[in-house]
Amino acid sequence: MSLSPQLVLKDVFGYPEFRGQQQSIIEAALQGRDSLVIMPTGGGKSLCYQIPAMLREGTGLVVSPLIALMQDQVTALREVGIAAEFLNSSQSPDERREVMNKLRQGKLQLLYIAPERLVTGHTRSLLRDVPLSIIAIDEAHCVSQWGHDFRQDYLGLGDLGALFPGVPRMAVTATATGKTRQEIVTRLELHEPDIFVAPFDRPNIGYTVQVKTDARGQLLKFLQTHRDEAGIVYCLSRKKTESIATWLCGQGFEALPYHAGLAADVRAENQRRFLAEDGLVIVATIAFGMGIDKPDVRFVAHLDLPKSVESYYQETGRAGRDGEPADAWMVYGLQDVVRLRQMLDESQADEEYKRYEGAKIDALLGWCEVIGCRRRPLLAYFGDSQNEDCGNCDGCLTPANTWDGSEAGQKLLSAVYRTEQRFGAAHLVDVLLGKKTDKVQQHGHEQLSVFGIGKDLPSTTWRSVARQLIVAGHLRSDAARFGALVLTETSRGVLRGETPLQFREDPKRSVVSSKKVAAIRVVGEQDESLWEALRACRQSLASEHNVPAYVIFHDKTLHEMLAYRPQTASDMLGISGIGQTKLDRYGDRFLSVLRGEPAA
Ligand code: ADP
Ligand code: ZN
């Protein structure tokens, strides 16, 4: 075997060096060992099994739960000249037979396969006659019965080790906290696996979280910094994705909705356009995303709170996979928490699960209300500690002030107590502000001693006090009482003045860091026309080859061309993302553009 991993990386994929632990992971597989690889989205997991698949004898098998993801990967692999195919339910029996023939004849370097296919006896007996180089199990957390992505078929993958002795297996995932990690190893029956946990930080993503005041206005302001860029806006309900998409179109954006209730062909078409074009906004429920590995998503915006820190991190992780600056932006309010809790309560799940999920909602709310750098607690949540503030989040860029909230906390908790723990934040705030609303009068609350005792603070501050009391555990939103705020064991300490409270002041301005804006606009004015010409060249090649633009070249590759102005084929090979196959296919076209020759 004369080829080395480095050579394949350079020649085939066109990348100068490995990232993070990629090389060690590849080495482990080359030595025939099982491994568990935990790497955040965009970290570069695919190469870890693709390269061993090319270097070891036989076909590499990749178990992947999502058809869209498989197709994407196979398209990208073929673009760099690798013999790859997939087997899934989107194919006709004839197409599948053809793939199986190629497999039997040893013509495939990589075969992507859906888990439900791999558990059938037919596929298994076919595979037993074929030498396998590696078995990669993508999205391995789907084996965890605790997770949201649990898939029954994954449980059938445990015996692959016994079935294919001597073939290294690699379980790969972006989400696996301690418990899930153990579950993956056990259920997939990995044999003494090497465990690789990559740092979770995504330094190119800037985090901003705002209190929801005027969600649409806030979104619009944020999107001004992302005109003509691809991004995802997440909403909780299907209806909302449609109304927001329509509204964004009215505001001059190209936006499309995506949710599980749309007809399958509409969904597929909207997804296809999002992948293929580089300036489209998709407004989606969480049905959209898993398996979307479009590298040039420049922002992920949340108009509603996701249900956990894990979901938030996974969803925002879809931004900036190419390593270029990207934004994760979110607005949230107490109403979001109440709604999530109600949804949880109405679900069929058992009590233990509800408690577990309830705690996750609280953890996310707690993170939203954090004082100081946002990235540090986010990483700490995943067991990845960092000692320095990041300088690329709202907490760092516009630090929130704090104030002594002990008295305000007491007032609000008293109002909860006096109104018999039966009301939500909106009513409590009315009582504190001394508003004689219908509801106040109906319950005689204008007679209470707490009526009007909070006139010194505006209602936005009172809402913030309520959220922070929840975060600190002094108040709880009770789903059984329709989201009413109720006291907890620690409320008494606050009421007696024994527990001092420091609150965070909600920042008044929305922040978009000048640093980030500068980083996004890396293309200087005099380069603008060349940049547009390179993009146009990429777009026309993409249309000719019927693939998304980023499959031709990533933004990063075009940026390097712009910066280094390669003039010859060998200059081109020095650019990140250009290997021999892509040079042969596209090199000349881009060289003409770089030389300023008129388009052919
Ligand atoms: P994920 O971990 O989410 O599966 P991918 O494997 O899709 O991530 O990789 C994300 C992007 O990073 C891809 O476009 C891939 O080509 C690129 N990439 C992976 N490894 C390297 C590397 N060593 N150098 C440069 N780019 C890389
Ligand atoms: Zn920070």
Give the tags.
600 residues; alpha/beta; Rossmann fold; Arc Repressor Mutant, subunit A; 7-stranded parallel sheet; 6-stranded parallel sheet; 28 helices; 17 strands; 45% helix; globular; binds adenosine-5'-diphosphate; binds zinc ion
Question: Outline of this structure?
Answer:
With 600 residues, the protein is an alpha/beta fold.
Blueprint of the fold:
Blueprint: H1 5-13, H2 22-30, E1 35-38, H3 45-55, E2 59-63, H4 67-79, E3 84-87, H5 93-104, E4 110-113, H6 115-118, H7 121-128, E5 132-137, H8 160-163, E6 169-173, H9 178-187, E7 194-197, E8 205-211, H10 215-223, E9 231-234, H11 238-250, E10 255-258, H12 264-276, E11 281-284, E12 299-302, H13 309-316, E13 326-332, H14 334-346, H15 351-368, H16 375-381, H17 394-397, E14 402-404, H18 406-418, H19 425-433, H20 438-442, H21 459-471, E15 475-478, E16 484-487, H22 491-495, E17 502-504, H23 514-520, H24 528-545, H25 549-552, H26 555-564, H27 569-573, H28 580-594
Parallel strand pairs: 1-6, 1-7, 2-4, 2-5, 3-4, 5-6, 8-13, 9-11, 9-12, 10-11, 12-13
Antiparallel strand pairs: 14-17, 15-16
Helix pairs in contact: 2-3, 14-15, 15-21, 18-19, 19-21, 24-28
The structure holds adenosine-5'-diphosphate (ADP) and zinc ion (ZN).
Residues 15, 18-19, 22, 39, 41-47, 293, 295, 321 line the site of adenosine-5'-diphosphate.
Describe this structure in words.
By secondary structure, this protein is an alpha/beta fold. The protein has 4 domains: 5-197, Rossmann fold (3-Layer(aba) Sandwich); 205-397, P-loop containing nucleotide triphosphate hydrolases (Rossmann fold); 401-505, Winged helix-like DNA-binding domain superfamily/Winged helix DNA-binding domain (Arc Repressor Mutant, subunit A, Orthogonal Bundle); 521-595, DNA polymerase, domain 1 (Orthogonal Bundle). Helices cover 45% and strands 13% of the residues. The protein contains 28 helices and 17 strands. A 7-stranded parallel beta sheet has the order 3-4-2-5-6-1-7, sandwiched between helices. Strands 8-13-12-9-11-10 form a 6-stranded parallel beta sheet, sandwiched between helices. A two-stranded antiparallel ribbon has the order 14-17. The longest helix is centred in the middle third of the chain and has 18 residues, at 351-368. The two termini are 42 Å apart. Mean pLDDT is 89; it is low at 509-521. It binds adenosine-5'-diphosphate and zinc ion. Adenosine-5'-diphosphate binds next to helix 3.
